[in-house]
Amino acid sequence: MRPLLKWAGGKRQLLPALRRCYPAAFDRYVEPFVGSGAVFFDLDAGGRLDGRRVRLADVNADLIGCYRAVRDDPDAVIGALRALEQEHRARGADCFYDVRDGRFNPARASLGARCGTHGAGMAAAYTPALAAMFIYLNRTGYNGLFRLNRNGGFNVPAGRYTEPRICEPDHIRSVARALARDRVVLHCGPFDEVLAGVGRGDFVYCDPPYAPLSRTACFAHYTAGGFGPLDQRRLQTAVVAAARRGASVVVSNSSAPDIEAAYAAPEARAAGLTVQRVPARRAINSLAARRGPVDELVITNAQTSGPLRMARVDPARRRTKTA
Ligand SMILES: C[S@@+](CC[C@H](N)C(=O)[O-])C[C@H]1O[C@@H](n2cnc3c(N)ncnc32)[C@H](O)[C@@H]1O
Protein backbone atom coordinates (compact mmCIF):
# COMPACT_ATOMS: atom_id res chain seq x y z
CA MET A 1 0.00 0.00 0.00
CA ARG A 2 1.12 3.53 -0.84
CA PRO A 3 1.94 5.74 2.19
CA LEU A 4 -0.59 8.42 3.16
CA LEU A 5 1.94 11.25 3.04
CA LYS A 6 4.80 12.43 0.85
CA TRP A 7 7.83 12.66 3.12
CA ALA A 8 11.39 13.83 2.61
CA GLY A 9 13.53 10.70 2.69
CA GLY A 10 10.57 8.38 2.03
CA LYS A 11 11.93 4.90 1.35
CA ARG A 12 9.82 3.55 -1.53
CA GLN A 13 12.79 3.47 -3.92
CA LEU A 14 14.91 1.55 -1.44
CA LEU A 15 12.21 -1.08 -0.76
CA PRO A 16 13.69 -3.79 -3.04
CA ALA A 17 16.94 -3.62 -1.05
CA LEU A 18 15.22 -3.40 2.34
CA ARG A 19 12.88 -6.34 1.59
CA ARG A 20 15.92 -8.58 1.27
CA CYS A 21 16.70 -7.78 4.91
CA TYR A 22 13.25 -8.54 6.38
CA PRO A 23 13.67 -11.44 8.82
CA ALA A 24 11.74 -14.65 8.13
CA ALA A 25 10.31 -14.70 11.66
CA PHE A 26 9.71 -12.02 14.28
CA ASP A 27 7.18 -11.23 17.02
CA ARG A 28 7.07 -7.45 16.92
CA TYR A 29 7.87 -4.77 14.33
CA VAL A 30 9.37 -1.51 15.64
CA GLU A 31 9.97 1.63 13.54
CA PRO A 32 11.34 4.59 15.57
CA PHE A 33 11.60 7.07 12.62
CA VAL A 34 8.37 6.20 10.85
CA GLY A 35 7.85 9.31 8.65
CA SER A 36 5.54 8.25 5.83
CA GLY A 37 6.00 4.61 6.87
CA ALA A 38 7.00 3.16 3.47
CA VAL A 39 8.37 0.01 5.13
CA PHE A 40 5.44 -0.35 7.55
CA PHE A 41 2.92 -0.15 4.68
CA ASP A 42 5.02 -2.56 2.60
CA LEU A 43 5.13 -5.12 5.42
CA ASP A 44 1.42 -4.62 6.07
CA ALA A 45 0.51 -5.08 2.40
CA GLY A 46 2.59 -8.28 2.28
CA GLY A 47 0.69 -9.71 5.28
CA ARG A 48 3.94 -9.77 7.27
CA LEU A 49 2.38 -7.93 10.24
CA ASP A 50 -0.68 -10.15 10.61
CA GLY A 51 -1.06 -11.16 14.26
CA ARG A 52 2.11 -9.31 15.25
CA ARG A 53 2.63 -6.35 17.54
CA VAL A 54 3.77 -3.11 15.91
CA ARG A 55 5.26 0.05 17.42
CA LEU A 56 5.47 3.07 15.10
CA ALA A 57 7.16 6.18 16.47
CA ASP A 58 8.43 9.56 15.40
CA VAL A 59 9.36 12.73 17.19
CA ASN A 60 7.12 14.80 14.88
CA ALA A 61 3.91 15.46 16.86
CA ASP A 62 1.91 16.61 13.81
CA LEU A 63 2.74 13.40 11.96
CA ILE A 64 1.76 11.08 14.83
CA GLY A 65 -1.27 13.27 15.62
CA CYS A 66 -2.40 13.02 12.00
CA TYR A 67 -2.03 9.21 11.97
CA ARG A 68 -4.01 8.94 15.20
CA ALA A 69 -6.82 11.15 13.87
CA VAL A 70 -6.97 9.12 10.63
CA ARG A 71 -7.02 5.88 12.62
CA ASP A 72 -9.70 7.06 15.06
CA ASP A 73 -12.05 8.99 12.77
CA PRO A 74 -11.27 8.49 9.06
CA ASP A 75 -14.70 9.74 7.99
CA ALA A 76 -14.26 13.08 9.76
CA VAL A 77 -10.81 13.49 8.17
CA ILE A 78 -12.21 12.61 4.73
CA GLY A 79 -15.10 15.10 5.13
CA ALA A 80 -12.77 17.96 6.06
CA LEU A 81 -10.25 17.05 3.36
CA ARG A 82 -12.95 16.87 0.70
CA ALA A 83 -14.01 20.43 1.56
CA LEU A 84 -10.38 21.59 1.30
CA GLU A 85 -10.02 19.86 -2.04
CA GLN A 86 -13.04 21.70 -3.45
CA GLU A 87 -11.72 24.99 -2.16
CA HIS A 88 -8.28 24.26 -3.65
CA ARG A 89 -9.75 23.46 -7.07
CA ALA A 90 -11.43 26.88 -7.02
CA ARG A 91 -8.61 29.01 -5.54
CA GLY A 92 -5.29 27.12 -5.96
CA ALA A 93 -2.28 28.66 -4.20
CA ASP A 94 -4.45 31.35 -2.51
CA CYS A 95 -6.27 28.54 -0.77
CA PHE A 96 -2.94 26.96 0.26
CA TYR A 97 -1.69 30.16 1.96
CA ASP A 98 -5.07 30.84 3.51
CA VAL A 99 -5.15 27.34 5.04
CA ARG A 100 -1.48 27.49 6.11
CA ASP A 101 -1.46 30.97 7.69
CA GLY A 102 -5.10 31.61 8.53
CA ARG A 103 -6.20 28.20 9.80
CA PHE A 104 -3.51 25.52 10.30
CA ASN A 105 -0.90 27.64 12.10
CA PRO A 106 -3.41 29.39 14.40
CA ALA A 107 -5.07 26.05 15.25
CA ARG A 108 -1.65 24.48 15.98
CA ALA A 109 -0.66 27.49 18.09
CA SER A 110 -3.78 27.27 20.24
CA LEU A 111 -3.31 23.50 20.61
CA GLY A 112 0.34 24.15 21.52
CA ALA A 113 -0.71 26.71 24.14
CA ARG A 114 -2.86 24.04 25.77
CA CYS A 115 -0.66 20.95 25.34
CA GLY A 116 2.86 22.14 24.41
CA THR A 117 4.00 22.40 20.79
CA HIS A 118 6.12 19.26 20.85
CA GLY A 119 5.58 15.72 21.85
CA ALA A 120 2.92 13.46 23.15
CA GLY A 121 0.47 16.12 24.37
CA MET A 122 0.05 17.74 20.99
CA ALA A 123 -0.11 14.41 19.15
CA ALA A 124 -2.82 13.18 21.53
CA ALA A 125 -4.95 16.30 21.07
CA TYR A 126 -4.75 16.43 17.25
CA THR A 127 -8.23 16.78 15.72
CA PRO A 128 -9.58 15.42 12.41
CA ALA A 129 -9.77 19.02 11.12
CA LEU A 130 -6.05 19.55 11.84
CA ALA A 131 -5.19 16.17 10.30
CA ALA A 132 -7.11 17.10 7.13
CA MET A 133 -5.20 20.40 6.90
CA PHE A 134 -1.91 18.57 7.49
CA ILE A 135 -2.67 16.12 4.64
CA TYR A 136 -3.85 18.97 2.38
CA LEU A 137 -0.67 21.02 2.98
CA ASN A 138 1.46 17.89 2.51
CA ARG A 139 -0.10 17.11 -0.85
CA THR A 140 -0.11 20.63 -2.23
CA GLY A 141 3.00 22.09 -0.55
CA TYR A 142 6.50 22.19 -1.99
CA ASN A 143 7.82 18.62 -2.29
CA GLY A 144 5.70 17.44 0.64
CA LEU A 145 8.18 19.08 3.01
CA PHE A 146 7.47 19.66 6.69
CA ARG A 147 9.39 22.66 8.02
CA LEU A 148 8.76 24.97 10.96
CA ASN A 149 10.06 28.52 11.41
CA ARG A 150 11.64 29.80 14.64
CA ASN A 151 8.21 30.60 16.06
CA GLY A 152 7.09 27.05 15.44
CA GLY A 153 4.90 27.96 12.45
CA PHE A 154 4.68 25.69 9.39
CA ASN A 155 6.30 27.72 6.58
CA VAL A 156 6.61 25.48 3.52
CA PRO A 157 5.55 27.32 0.32
CA ALA A 158 2.92 26.06 -2.11
CA GLY A 159 4.05 23.43 -4.61
CA ARG A 160 3.48 23.78 -8.34
CA TYR A 161 1.22 20.86 -9.09
CA THR A 162 -1.32 20.91 -11.86
CA GLU A 163 -3.57 18.15 -10.54
CA PRO A 164 -2.60 17.28 -6.96
CA ARG A 165 -4.32 14.23 -5.51
CA ILE A 166 -5.79 15.64 -2.32
CA CYS A 167 -8.64 13.51 -1.04
CA GLU A 168 -8.62 9.78 -1.78
CA PRO A 169 -11.26 8.35 0.55
CA ASP A 170 -10.55 4.65 -0.16
CA HIS A 171 -6.86 5.16 0.42
CA ILE A 172 -7.45 7.01 3.70
CA ARG A 173 -9.76 4.19 4.87
CA SER A 174 -7.12 1.55 3.99
CA VAL A 175 -4.49 3.52 5.92
CA ALA A 176 -6.92 3.81 8.87
CA ARG A 177 -7.50 0.04 8.82
CA ALA A 178 -3.74 -0.65 8.79
CA LEU A 179 -3.22 1.68 11.77
CA ALA A 180 -6.28 0.49 13.66
CA ARG A 181 -5.16 -3.13 14.07
CA ASP A 182 -5.45 -3.80 17.77
CA ARG A 183 -1.73 -4.44 18.20
CA VAL A 184 -0.44 -1.28 16.48
CA VAL A 185 0.85 1.42 18.84
CA LEU A 186 1.56 4.98 17.61
CA HIS A 187 4.07 6.73 19.80
CA CYS A 188 5.32 10.31 19.70
CA GLY A 189 8.84 10.55 21.10
CA PRO A 190 12.57 10.38 20.40
CA PHE A 191 14.19 7.19 19.10
CA ASP A 192 16.10 6.45 22.32
CA GLU A 193 12.86 5.83 24.23
CA VAL A 194 11.77 3.32 21.62
CA LEU A 195 15.06 1.50 21.06
CA ALA A 196 15.67 1.07 24.79
CA GLY A 197 12.85 -1.48 24.93
CA VAL A 198 13.89 -3.53 21.90
CA GLY A 199 15.36 -7.05 22.06
CA ARG A 200 15.00 -10.69 20.99
CA GLY A 201 12.01 -11.34 18.73
CA ASP A 202 11.84 -7.72 17.55
CA PHE A 203 12.42 -6.56 13.98
CA VAL A 204 13.59 -2.92 14.07
CA TYR A 205 13.91 -0.66 11.06
CA CYS A 206 15.69 2.68 11.69
CA ASP A 207 15.57 5.36 9.03
CA PRO A 208 16.97 8.49 10.69
CA PRO A 209 17.45 11.84 8.97
CA TYR A 210 20.39 11.17 6.68
CA ALA A 211 23.82 12.45 7.63
CA PRO A 212 24.83 15.15 5.09
CA LEU A 213 27.51 14.05 2.63
CA SER A 214 29.31 17.39 2.87
CA ARG A 215 29.19 20.47 5.09
CA THR A 216 27.33 22.42 2.46
CA ALA A 217 24.95 19.62 1.48
CA CYS A 218 21.30 20.42 1.82
CA PHE A 219 19.43 17.96 3.99
CA ALA A 220 16.00 17.77 5.51
CA HIS A 221 15.34 19.30 8.92
CA TYR A 222 12.32 17.48 10.28
CA THR A 223 12.60 19.00 13.73
CA ALA A 224 13.65 22.35 15.16
CA GLY A 225 16.79 20.81 16.67
CA GLY A 226 17.82 18.86 13.57
CA PHE A 227 19.69 15.55 13.78
CA GLY A 228 23.42 16.12 14.18
CA PRO A 229 26.56 13.97 14.52
CA LEU A 230 25.89 13.39 18.23
CA ASP A 231 22.42 12.04 17.44
CA GLN A 232 23.93 9.76 14.79
CA ARG A 233 26.42 8.49 17.35
CA ARG A 234 23.71 7.90 19.99
CA LEU A 235 21.72 6.02 17.37
CA GLN A 236 24.68 3.81 16.47
CA THR A 237 25.15 2.95 20.16
CA ALA A 238 21.44 2.13 20.58
CA VAL A 239 21.38 0.03 17.40
CA VAL A 240 24.46 -1.96 18.40
CA ALA A 241 22.93 -2.56 21.84
CA ALA A 242 19.63 -3.71 20.28
CA ALA A 243 21.48 -6.13 17.98
CA ARG A 244 23.42 -7.48 20.95
CA ARG A 245 20.14 -8.07 22.80
CA GLY A 246 19.05 -10.25 19.86
CA ALA A 247 16.86 -7.91 17.77
CA SER A 248 16.82 -8.17 13.97
CA VAL A 249 18.05 -4.76 12.89
CA VAL A 250 18.00 -2.81 9.63
CA VAL A 251 19.25 0.79 9.35
CA SER A 252 19.36 3.01 6.27
CA ASN A 253 21.53 6.10 6.03
CA SER A 254 23.59 8.16 3.63
CA SER A 255 27.02 6.92 2.59
CA ALA A 256 28.72 9.72 4.58
CA PRO A 257 32.19 8.46 5.63
CA ASP A 258 31.41 8.93 9.37
CA ILE A 259 28.34 6.72 9.12
CA GLU A 260 30.14 4.00 7.18
CA ALA A 261 32.99 4.06 9.72
CA ALA A 262 30.64 4.02 12.74
CA TYR A 263 28.80 0.90 11.60
CA ALA A 264 31.98 -0.85 10.43
CA ALA A 265 33.55 -0.29 13.87
CA PRO A 266 34.59 -3.40 15.85
CA GLU A 267 31.67 -3.20 18.35
CA ALA A 268 29.16 -3.05 15.47
CA ARG A 269 30.79 -6.00 13.69
CA ALA A 270 30.88 -7.95 16.94
CA ALA A 271 27.12 -7.39 17.22
CA GLY A 272 26.75 -9.03 13.77
CA LEU A 273 26.11 -5.84 11.79
CA THR A 274 27.37 -5.49 8.23
CA VAL A 275 27.37 -2.38 6.06
CA GLN A 276 26.16 -2.67 2.48
CA ARG A 277 26.37 0.06 -0.12
CA VAL A 278 23.27 0.33 -2.33
CA PRO A 279 24.20 1.97 -5.65
CA ALA A 280 21.88 4.82 -6.65
CA ARG A 281 19.96 4.36 -9.88
CA ARG A 282 20.87 6.81 -12.58
CA ALA A 283 17.82 8.82 -13.59
CA ILE A 284 18.51 9.83 -17.20
CA ASN A 285 17.69 13.42 -18.11
CA SER A 286 16.47 14.37 -14.66
CA LEU A 287 17.83 17.13 -12.47
CA ALA A 288 18.82 14.50 -9.92
CA ALA A 289 21.13 12.92 -12.51
CA ARG A 290 22.87 16.22 -13.13
CA ARG A 291 23.53 16.58 -9.41
CA GLY A 292 24.99 13.06 -9.51
CA PRO A 293 23.43 9.98 -7.94
CA VAL A 294 24.44 9.13 -4.42
CA ASP A 295 24.84 5.66 -2.94
CA GLU A 296 22.98 4.80 0.25
CA LEU A 297 23.93 2.46 3.08
CA VAL A 298 21.91 -0.39 4.48
CA ILE A 299 23.24 -1.73 7.76
CA THR A 300 21.83 -5.01 9.02
CA ASN A 301 22.45 -8.20 10.95
CA ALA A 302 20.26 -10.11 8.47
CA GLN A 303 21.85 -12.68 6.18
CA THR A 304 21.60 -11.33 2.62
CA SER A 305 23.18 -12.91 -0.43
CA GLY A 306 24.33 -10.81 -3.38
CA PRO A 307 24.33 -7.01 -3.72
CA LEU A 308 21.33 -4.91 -2.64
CA ARG A 309 19.68 -2.76 -5.31
CA MET A 310 17.22 0.14 -5.53
CA ALA A 311 14.01 0.23 -7.54
CA ARG A 312 14.26 1.50 -11.09
CA VAL A 313 13.08 5.10 -11.45
CA ASP A 314 11.17 6.18 -14.51
CA PRO A 315 12.66 9.61 -15.35
CA ALA A 316 9.40 10.70 -16.98
CA ARG A 317 7.58 10.09 -13.67
CA ARG A 318 10.18 12.16 -11.80
CA ARG A 319 9.57 15.10 -14.09
CA THR A 320 5.77 14.96 -13.80
CA LYS A 321 4.45 17.81 -11.71
CA THR A 322 1.66 15.93 -9.98
CA ALA A 323 1.45 15.03 -6.33
C1 LIG B 1 14.22 9.86 6.76
S1 LIG B 1 12.75 10.24 7.63
C2 LIG B 1 11.95 8.69 7.72
C3 LIG B 1 11.32 8.36 6.41
C4 LIG B 1 10.49 7.09 6.43
N1 LIG B 1 11.30 5.90 6.46
C5 LIG B 1 9.58 7.06 5.22
O1 LIG B 1 9.48 6.05 4.52
O2 LIG B 1 8.94 8.09 4.96
C6 LIG B 1 13.31 10.52 9.26
C7 LIG B 1 12.22 10.72 10.30
O3 LIG B 1 12.85 10.82 11.59
C8 LIG B 1 12.10 11.70 12.41
N2 LIG B 1 12.99 12.15 13.49
C9 LIG B 1 13.92 13.14 13.48
N3 LIG B 1 14.59 13.18 14.65
C10 LIG B 1 14.09 12.17 15.42
C11 LIG B 1 14.36 11.68 16.73
N4 LIG B 1 15.31 12.23 17.48
N5 LIG B 1 13.66 10.63 17.19
C12 LIG B 1 12.68 10.05 16.42
N6 LIG B 1 12.36 10.48 15.18
C13 LIG B 1 13.06 11.52 14.68
C14 LIG B 1 11.63 12.79 11.47
O4 LIG B 1 10.48 13.44 11.97
C15 LIG B 1 11.38 11.98 10.17
O5 LIG B 1 10.02 11.62 10.06
Can you summarize this structure?
The protein has 323 residues and is an alpha/beta fold. 43% of the residues lie in helices and 11% in strands.
Walk me through this protein's architecture.
With 323 residues, the chain is α/β, with parallel strands linked by helices. It has two domains: 15-59 and 189-319, Vaccinia Virus protein VP39 (Rossmann fold, 3-Layer(aba) Sandwich); 74-167, Adenine-specific Methyltransferase, Domain 2 (Adenine-specific Methyltransferase, domain 2, Orthogonal Bundle). It has helices spanning 15-19, 38-45, 61-72, 74-91, 93-115, 120-125, 128-140, 169-180, 191-195, 229-244, 257-263, 266-270, 287-291, 315-319, and strands spanning 28-31, 53-58, 184-188, 202-206, 248-254, 274-278, 296-300. α3 crosses α7, α3 (61-72) packs across α8 (169-180) and α5 crosses α7. The protein is globular and about 55 Å long. The two termini are 16 Å apart. S-adenosylmethionine is lined by residues 7, 9-11, 32-33, 35-38, 58-60, 190-191, 207-209, 222-223, 227.
Q: Give every kind of bound small molecule, once each.
A: S-adenosylmethionine
What's the total count of β strands? 7
CATH level-1 class of the largest domain: Alpha Beta
Mean pLDDT: 90
Regions with pLDDT < 50 over 5+ consecutive residues? 318-323
CATH topology of the largest domain: Rossmann fold
Structural class, from helix and strand content?
alpha/beta
Largest sheet: 7 strands, mixed
Widest sheet, order of strands:
3-2-1-4-5-7-6
- Number of DSSP helical runs: 14
Q: How large is the radius of gyration?
A: 19 Å
The H-level CATH homologous superfamily of the largest domain, spelled out, is Vaccinia Virus protein VP39
**Strand/helix succession:** HEHEHHHHHHEHEHEHHEHEH
- Our measurement of the CA-to-CA distance between the termini, rounded to an integer number of angstroms, reads 16 Å
Number of domains: 2
Strand content bin = 5-15%
Helix content bin: 40-55%
CATH architecture call of the largest domain = 3-Layer(aba) Sandwich
| Form type | globular
